[in-house]
Design goal:
By secondary structure, the chain is mainly alpha-helical. It contains 13 helices and two strands. It folds into two domains: about 40 residues; about 200 residues, Orthogonal Bundle (MetI-like fold), CATH 1.10.3720.10. The longest helix has about 45 residues.
Length: about 325
Protein backbone atom coordinates (compact mmCIF):
# COMPACT_ATOMS: atom_id res chain seq x y z
CA UNK A 1 0.00 0.00 0.00
CA UNK A 2 1.42 3.39 -0.97
CA UNK A 3 1.40 6.52 1.17
CA UNK A 4 -0.92 8.29 -1.29
CA UNK A 5 -3.57 5.58 -0.98
CA UNK A 6 -3.87 6.21 2.79
CA UNK A 7 -4.82 9.87 2.27
CA UNK A 8 -8.48 10.85 2.40
CA UNK A 9 -9.98 11.50 -1.02
CA UNK A 10 -10.90 15.11 -0.13
CA UNK A 11 -7.18 15.98 0.41
CA UNK A 12 -6.16 15.28 -3.21
CA UNK A 13 -7.51 18.60 -4.57
CA UNK A 14 -5.68 20.47 -1.79
CA UNK A 15 -2.40 18.79 -2.65
CA UNK A 16 -2.85 19.54 -6.35
CA UNK A 17 -3.65 23.17 -5.51
CA UNK A 18 -0.50 23.47 -3.39
CA UNK A 19 1.62 21.97 -6.17
CA UNK A 20 0.13 24.39 -8.70
CA UNK A 21 0.74 27.33 -6.35
CA UNK A 22 4.33 26.23 -5.78
CA UNK A 23 4.95 25.87 -9.51
CA UNK A 24 3.44 29.31 -10.12
CA UNK A 25 5.70 30.78 -7.43
CA UNK A 26 8.76 29.20 -9.04
CA UNK A 27 7.81 30.63 -12.44
CA UNK A 28 7.21 34.07 -10.91
CA UNK A 29 10.60 33.96 -9.19
CA UNK A 30 12.35 32.98 -12.43
CA UNK A 31 10.77 35.85 -14.34
CA UNK A 32 11.58 38.27 -11.52
CA UNK A 33 15.24 37.31 -11.72
CA UNK A 34 15.43 37.14 -15.53
CA UNK A 35 13.36 40.22 -16.42
CA UNK A 36 16.07 42.83 -15.66
CA UNK A 37 18.62 40.81 -17.63
CA UNK A 38 16.26 40.41 -20.60
CA UNK A 39 15.44 44.14 -20.52
CA UNK A 40 19.16 44.98 -20.45
CA UNK A 41 19.80 42.78 -23.47
CA UNK A 42 16.80 43.98 -25.49
CA UNK A 43 17.01 47.72 -24.85
CA UNK A 44 20.77 48.30 -24.44
CA UNK A 45 22.94 45.44 -25.65
CA UNK A 46 20.90 44.44 -28.70
CA UNK A 47 20.73 47.97 -30.23
CA UNK A 48 24.46 48.41 -29.66
CA UNK A 49 25.10 44.99 -31.19
CA UNK A 50 23.01 45.84 -34.27
CA UNK A 51 24.63 49.27 -34.65
CA UNK A 52 28.06 47.68 -34.37
CA UNK A 53 27.07 45.20 -37.08
CA UNK A 54 25.96 48.06 -39.33
CA UNK A 55 29.27 49.88 -38.99
CA UNK A 56 31.20 46.68 -39.71
CA UNK A 57 29.89 46.83 -43.30
CA UNK A 58 29.93 50.62 -43.68
CA UNK A 59 33.22 52.47 -43.44
CA UNK A 60 32.89 55.26 -40.90
CA UNK A 61 35.24 57.40 -38.86
CA UNK A 62 34.12 60.00 -36.37
CA UNK A 63 35.89 62.63 -38.45
CA UNK A 64 33.66 61.87 -41.44
CA UNK A 65 30.62 63.43 -39.75
CA UNK A 66 32.17 66.93 -39.84
CA UNK A 67 30.34 69.57 -37.83
CA UNK A 68 27.08 67.63 -37.89
CA UNK A 69 26.82 65.94 -34.49
CA UNK A 70 23.30 64.51 -34.90
CA UNK A 71 22.75 60.78 -34.63
CA UNK A 72 21.72 60.46 -38.28
CA UNK A 73 25.00 62.06 -39.37
CA UNK A 74 26.76 58.80 -38.53
CA UNK A 75 24.64 57.00 -41.10
CA UNK A 76 24.88 59.72 -43.75
CA UNK A 77 28.67 59.87 -43.44
CA UNK A 78 29.15 56.09 -43.69
CA UNK A 79 30.00 54.37 -46.96
CA UNK A 80 29.19 50.79 -47.95
CA UNK A 81 32.36 48.67 -48.14
CA UNK A 82 30.93 45.17 -47.74
CA UNK A 83 33.47 42.64 -46.53
CA UNK A 84 36.54 44.80 -47.21
CA UNK A 85 37.06 45.64 -43.54
CA UNK A 86 36.66 41.98 -42.57
CA UNK A 87 39.34 41.00 -45.10
CA UNK A 88 41.63 43.72 -43.77
CA UNK A 89 41.15 42.50 -40.20
CA UNK A 90 41.86 38.88 -41.10
CA UNK A 91 45.15 39.90 -42.72
CA UNK A 92 46.10 42.52 -40.10
CA UNK A 93 49.52 41.57 -38.71
CA UNK A 94 49.14 43.84 -35.67
CA UNK A 95 45.83 42.22 -34.80
CA UNK A 96 47.40 38.78 -35.21
CA UNK A 97 50.25 39.66 -32.87
CA UNK A 98 47.74 41.10 -30.39
CA UNK A 99 45.92 37.74 -30.39
CA UNK A 100 49.20 35.88 -29.81
CA UNK A 101 50.13 38.20 -26.94
CA UNK A 102 46.70 37.79 -25.35
CA UNK A 103 46.83 34.01 -25.63
CA UNK A 104 50.33 33.81 -24.16
CA UNK A 105 49.36 36.24 -21.40
CA UNK A 106 46.16 34.34 -20.60
CA UNK A 107 47.83 30.92 -20.55
CA UNK A 108 50.66 32.13 -18.32
CA UNK A 109 48.33 33.90 -15.91
CA UNK A 110 45.91 30.97 -15.81
CA UNK A 111 48.63 28.46 -14.99
CA UNK A 112 50.24 30.77 -12.42
CA UNK A 113 46.96 31.54 -10.64
CA UNK A 114 45.91 27.89 -10.59
CA UNK A 115 49.20 26.46 -9.33
CA UNK A 116 49.54 28.98 -6.51
CA UNK A 117 45.82 28.96 -5.67
CA UNK A 118 45.65 25.16 -5.60
CA UNK A 119 48.77 24.95 -3.42
CA UNK A 120 47.27 27.42 -0.94
CA UNK A 121 43.97 25.53 -0.96
CA UNK A 122 45.75 22.25 -0.14
CA UNK A 123 47.41 23.97 2.81
CA UNK A 124 44.20 25.61 4.02
CA UNK A 125 41.27 23.28 3.45
CA UNK A 126 41.76 21.35 6.71
CA UNK A 127 40.71 23.39 9.79
CA UNK A 128 43.47 24.75 12.03
CA UNK A 129 43.92 27.54 14.54
CA UNK A 130 44.04 30.98 12.94
CA UNK A 131 42.64 29.74 9.63
CA UNK A 132 40.26 32.69 9.32
CA UNK A 133 43.11 35.21 9.46
CA UNK A 134 45.03 33.48 6.68
CA UNK A 135 41.86 33.12 4.62
CA UNK A 136 41.20 36.87 4.76
CA UNK A 137 44.87 37.61 4.07
CA UNK A 138 44.89 35.41 0.95
CA UNK A 139 41.73 36.88 -0.59
CA UNK A 140 42.65 40.55 -0.02
CA UNK A 141 44.40 40.95 -3.44
CA UNK A 142 41.17 40.04 -5.24
CA UNK A 143 39.38 42.90 -3.44
CA UNK A 144 41.85 45.49 -4.70
CA UNK A 145 40.76 47.67 -7.63
CA UNK A 146 42.87 46.78 -10.73
CA UNK A 147 43.75 50.39 -11.58
CA UNK A 148 45.02 50.86 -8.01
CA UNK A 149 47.22 47.80 -8.49
CA UNK A 150 48.55 49.33 -11.72
CA UNK A 151 49.53 52.67 -10.15
CA UNK A 152 50.94 51.01 -7.02
CA UNK A 153 52.92 48.61 -9.19
CA UNK A 154 54.31 51.52 -11.19
CA UNK A 155 55.62 53.16 -8.02
CA UNK A 156 57.16 49.91 -6.75
CA UNK A 157 58.64 48.79 -10.07
CA UNK A 158 60.02 52.16 -11.16
CA UNK A 159 63.71 51.99 -12.07
CA UNK A 160 64.64 53.91 -8.91
CA UNK A 161 61.78 52.43 -6.94
CA UNK A 162 61.74 50.34 -3.76
CA UNK A 163 61.95 46.93 -5.46
CA UNK A 164 65.29 47.74 -7.06
CA UNK A 165 66.48 49.13 -3.71
CA UNK A 166 65.55 45.86 -1.98
CA UNK A 167 67.29 43.81 -4.69
CA UNK A 168 70.35 46.03 -4.35
CA UNK A 169 70.46 45.57 -0.55
CA UNK A 170 70.10 41.79 -0.85
CA UNK A 171 72.71 41.37 -3.60
CA UNK A 172 75.06 44.11 -2.43
CA UNK A 173 75.11 45.66 -5.91
CA UNK A 174 73.17 48.45 -7.56
CA UNK A 175 70.04 47.20 -9.35
CA UNK A 176 68.62 49.18 -12.28
CA UNK A 177 66.21 46.57 -13.62
CA UNK A 178 63.58 48.00 -15.96
CA UNK A 179 60.53 45.93 -15.18
CA UNK A 180 58.13 48.18 -17.09
CA UNK A 181 60.06 49.88 -19.86
CA UNK A 182 61.88 46.93 -21.39
CA UNK A 183 59.97 45.15 -24.15
CA UNK A 184 61.21 41.68 -23.21
CA UNK A 185 59.78 41.77 -19.66
CA UNK A 186 56.92 44.31 -19.76
CA UNK A 187 54.15 41.79 -20.49
CA UNK A 188 55.61 39.35 -17.94
CA UNK A 189 55.53 42.10 -15.31
CA UNK A 190 51.84 42.75 -15.96
CA UNK A 191 51.20 38.99 -15.87
CA UNK A 192 52.83 38.84 -12.42
CA UNK A 193 50.50 41.60 -11.20
CA UNK A 194 47.52 39.76 -12.69
CA UNK A 195 48.56 36.54 -10.94
CA UNK A 196 48.85 38.38 -7.61
CA UNK A 197 45.46 40.02 -8.17
CA UNK A 198 43.51 36.90 -9.17
CA UNK A 199 45.18 33.94 -7.44
CA UNK A 200 42.55 34.25 -4.65
CA UNK A 201 39.87 33.43 -7.26
CA UNK A 202 41.45 30.05 -8.00
CA UNK A 203 42.13 29.60 -4.28
CA UNK A 204 38.44 30.02 -3.37
CA UNK A 205 37.24 27.67 -6.13
CA UNK A 206 39.71 24.95 -5.17
CA UNK A 207 38.92 25.38 -1.47
CA UNK A 208 35.26 24.80 -2.26
CA UNK A 209 36.14 21.79 -4.41
CA UNK A 210 38.32 20.20 -1.72
CA UNK A 211 35.70 20.83 0.97
CA UNK A 212 32.99 19.13 -1.14
CA UNK A 213 34.93 15.91 -1.77
CA UNK A 214 33.18 12.80 -0.42
CA UNK A 215 34.88 11.26 2.59
CA UNK A 216 34.11 7.60 1.78
CA UNK A 217 36.63 7.05 -1.06
CA UNK A 218 39.42 8.71 0.94
CA UNK A 219 38.65 6.69 4.07
CA UNK A 220 38.55 3.48 2.02
CA UNK A 221 41.96 4.29 0.53
CA UNK A 222 43.36 4.97 4.02
CA UNK A 223 42.05 1.63 5.28
CA UNK A 224 43.78 -0.08 2.34
CA UNK A 225 47.05 1.54 3.41
CA UNK A 226 47.43 4.15 0.67
CA UNK A 227 49.81 7.00 1.34
CA UNK A 228 48.68 10.65 1.42
CA UNK A 229 50.31 11.29 -1.96
CA UNK A 230 48.58 8.29 -3.53
CA UNK A 231 45.22 9.33 -2.06
CA UNK A 232 45.69 12.79 -3.51
CA UNK A 233 46.82 11.56 -6.93
CA UNK A 234 44.40 8.66 -7.40
CA UNK A 235 41.33 9.70 -5.37
CA UNK A 236 41.15 13.44 -4.78
CA UNK A 237 42.55 14.68 -8.09
CA UNK A 238 40.20 12.63 -10.33
CA UNK A 239 37.22 13.83 -8.29
CA UNK A 240 38.44 17.42 -8.60
CA UNK A 241 38.78 17.38 -12.40
CA UNK A 242 35.49 19.25 -13.09
CA UNK A 243 36.36 21.89 -10.48
CA UNK A 244 39.90 22.25 -11.85
CA UNK A 245 38.58 22.60 -15.38
CA UNK A 246 36.06 25.24 -14.28
CA UNK A 247 38.74 27.23 -12.46
CA UNK A 248 41.05 27.13 -15.49
CA UNK A 249 38.32 28.13 -17.95
CA UNK A 250 37.02 31.06 -15.91
CA UNK A 251 40.50 32.37 -15.23
CA UNK A 252 41.52 32.04 -18.90
CA UNK A 253 38.45 33.91 -20.16
CA UNK A 254 38.96 36.77 -17.70
CA UNK A 255 42.67 36.99 -18.51
CA UNK A 256 41.91 37.36 -22.21
CA UNK A 257 39.87 40.47 -21.38
CA UNK A 258 42.41 42.08 -19.01
CA UNK A 259 42.61 45.81 -19.71
CA UNK A 260 42.88 48.13 -16.65
CA UNK A 261 46.38 47.16 -15.53
CA UNK A 262 47.81 46.98 -19.05
CA UNK A 263 46.37 50.35 -20.05
CA UNK A 264 46.97 52.05 -16.72
CA UNK A 265 50.64 51.07 -16.69
CA UNK A 266 51.90 51.15 -20.26
CA UNK A 267 48.99 51.82 -22.68
CA UNK A 268 50.26 49.08 -24.96
CA UNK A 269 53.93 50.05 -24.71
CA UNK A 270 56.85 50.02 -24.69
CA UNK A 271 56.42 49.95 -28.45
CA UNK A 272 53.70 47.35 -28.87
CA UNK A 273 55.01 44.87 -26.31
CA UNK A 274 51.81 44.91 -24.22
CA UNK A 275 49.34 45.59 -27.03
CA UNK A 276 46.89 42.80 -26.29
CA UNK A 277 43.47 42.39 -27.92
CA UNK A 278 41.54 44.80 -25.63
CA UNK A 279 44.29 47.43 -25.88
CA UNK A 280 44.52 47.17 -29.68
CA UNK A 281 40.75 47.49 -30.12
CA UNK A 282 40.62 50.44 -27.72
CA UNK A 283 43.42 52.23 -29.58
CA UNK A 284 41.76 51.56 -32.93
CA UNK A 285 38.29 52.74 -31.92
CA UNK A 286 38.97 55.50 -29.37
CA UNK A 287 42.36 56.92 -30.31
CA UNK A 288 42.30 56.56 -34.08
CA UNK A 289 38.47 56.89 -34.08
CA UNK A 290 38.16 54.15 -36.70
CA UNK A 291 34.75 53.01 -35.48
CA UNK A 292 34.03 50.59 -38.32
CA UNK A 293 37.33 48.75 -38.09
CA UNK A 294 37.01 48.56 -34.31
CA UNK A 295 33.55 47.04 -34.75
CA UNK A 296 34.93 44.36 -37.08
CA UNK A 297 37.74 43.54 -34.66
CA UNK A 298 35.24 43.26 -31.81
CA UNK A 299 33.09 40.85 -33.82
CA UNK A 300 36.08 38.67 -34.66
CA UNK A 301 37.07 38.52 -30.99
CA UNK A 302 33.45 37.71 -30.11
CA UNK A 303 33.43 34.77 -32.53
CA UNK A 304 36.77 33.55 -31.19
CA UNK A 305 35.59 33.73 -27.57
CA UNK A 306 32.30 32.02 -28.47
CA UNK A 307 34.29 29.12 -29.93
CA UNK A 308 36.39 28.93 -26.76
CA UNK A 309 33.31 29.07 -24.51
CA UNK A 310 31.49 26.36 -26.50
CA UNK A 311 34.58 24.15 -26.31
CA UNK A 312 34.75 24.79 -22.57
CA UNK A 313 31.08 23.86 -22.12
CA UNK A 314 31.67 20.64 -24.06
CA UNK A 315 34.63 19.78 -21.83
CA UNK A 316 32.66 20.53 -18.66
CA UNK A 317 29.79 18.33 -19.80
CA UNK A 318 32.18 15.52 -20.62
CA UNK A 319 33.78 15.79 -17.19
CA UNK A 320 30.36 15.81 -15.54
CA UNK A 321 29.34 12.66 -17.41
CA UNK A 322 32.60 11.03 -16.39
CA UNK A 323 32.02 11.98 -12.75
CA UNK A 324 28.41 10.77 -12.86
CA UNK A 325 29.58 7.45 -14.27
CA UNK A 326 32.07 7.15 -11.42
CA UNK A 327 29.29 7.44 -8.85
CA UNK A 328 26.75 5.39 -10.80
CA UNK A 329 25.76 2.16 -9.06
CA UNK A 330 24.01 -0.67 -10.83
CA UNK A 331 20.89 -2.05 -9.14
CA UNK A 332 21.52 -5.39 -7.56
CA UNK A 333 19.53 -8.26 -8.97
CA UNK A 334 17.58 -10.14 -6.39
Amino acid sequence: MTADSTLPSDMAPQLNSRAATRAQGVRRFKWTVLSPLIALMVFILLPAFVLQGYFSFFSFSIFDAGDDTSFLSYFRASEWVGLDLWKDALTDDKFGFAIIRSLLFAVGVTVGCFVIGFALALLMYRPFRGQGFYYIFFILPMLTVPIVIAYTGEMILYQNGPLNDIIGMVTGTRSDAQFLYKQEVALTTIAAMEIWNWTPFSFIIMMAGLASLPKEPQEAAQILGASKWRIFWEVQLPLLRPVILLALILRFLESMAEFPKTWGLLQGGPGSATETIPVYIFITAWQFFDISYGAVLSYLVLFMMMAIVMSAIWLLRREKKSLDAMYETKPQEG
